[in-house]
Amino acid sequence: MLSLTSRLLISLSIVLSCFLGGTGYVLDKTFQESAKDAAQDRLHGFAMALIAAAEIKIDGSVYIPDILPIVRFNQLKSGLYAQVLNNQGKQLWKSSSSNGKDLPQSHQLKNTEASFVVTETLSGERLFNFNYGVSWDLSNKVHVYTINILESLDTYEKEINRFQQKLWLWLGGVSFLLIVVQGSLMRWSLRPIHTAATEIERIEAGQQTELENIYPKELQILTKNLNALMKSNKQHLTRYRHSLSDLAHSLKTPLALLNSAGESNDTKHPLKEVVAEQVDQMKQIVDYQLQRASTSGQNPLSKPIDIESITNKINNSLLKVYADKRITSNIEIESEVLFFGDESDLFELLGNTLDNAFKWAQSNILIKINTSQTPHQLWISIEDDGPGIEPQLAKKVLERGIRSDERGGTGIGLAIVNDIVQAYDGTIELGQSKLGGCLFLIKLSQNQ
Fold this sequence. Notes:
The protein is α+β, with helices and mostly antiparallel strands. It is 48% helix and 19% strand. The chain has three domains: 4-158, Beta-Lactamase, CATH 3.30.450; 231-294; 305-445, Histidine kinase-like ATPase, C-terminal domain (Heat Shock Protein 90, 2-Layer Sandwich). Strand 11 (364-370) and strand 12 (377-384) form a beta hairpin. Helix 6 runs parallel beside helix 7 and helix 7 (343-360) crosses helix 8 (413-423). It is rod-shaped and about 150 Å long.
């Protein structure tokens, strides 16, 4: 496949060739018409000179001196010929240069009428043919004559050929120069793209971790998103590695206890109870680490998600689950607020925090979501009118396996929320709600 530079150069060369070709064609046609008009004016001048030199006799014959001021009329093979015809088409006079020439028949014209055409002699010589009608009033009788001036096209065609040669030579030189200039300008213009490609190759080779150069504003969005994408992928890979390492480490203790219980003869702790307890513990560990590893985090290329529809969906589901508590939930969401991230992360984040609020609320829950507080930040506030949370437990409940008391659950839900918030370079705060219960304030970075 052709490179971008080659594509642009070929495209611009085609456009330039068409433009200069069209320009050359128009200039050529314009010059030909101009030269033809000049020839007509010149022959018209010759006709006026003959009329000035002519004398009309009483019998209607024409006398023009043998030696004329226009020297070419006196020279054989000069390429300039003249004749005078009466209104019956009879030749009354011809120039010395016309001797031996079979001049074409000319149309008879009325007084002051003129015509200008290209004609050809029987011998094949092409000529400009100018005719001009003139009348003389002699003895109360009007005599009408046609002054016929002819000129060979040889001089005209040679002039046209010289012009065309110079025209296409200059246009060809200009085209070559413009193509060279275009190539240089394109190489300069596309240099940032080549620089970016070189940096990406260095990243693939492990020689650098992100695009470091300063790029034009047209490429800044691309380079910024590429850096963010590489950062996101690196963080995701790091989470996978840490989760697998933590999973392996966390399972060592339950497995050791199971092994010890299998080898022990202690009747105070039956094997069935130990196995059930440790299997449940391992299930919690696996669930937590898998969820932690699957957290996508920020992705600048992800499709924006409508938060309102997801919030309403989760809220409606929880209202059915906790229908016996008759909870009233109020939702205040800024219009057209969007979440730039993974949809499953948003479901986990809102699902766990709202489930916690429904679990502890007595009758009221308030949900606020907006972006107007701080630029490029999404604020999620969830309040309930439950018993609240002790300040000393506020940070601990965000750790895996820690609960504020023993009311159901595995204790990993809020830890998952905390991991998701960290993946989005955000913060989570627990405090006292105006409703009297607990307040969850989540701030997520939104690099859209």
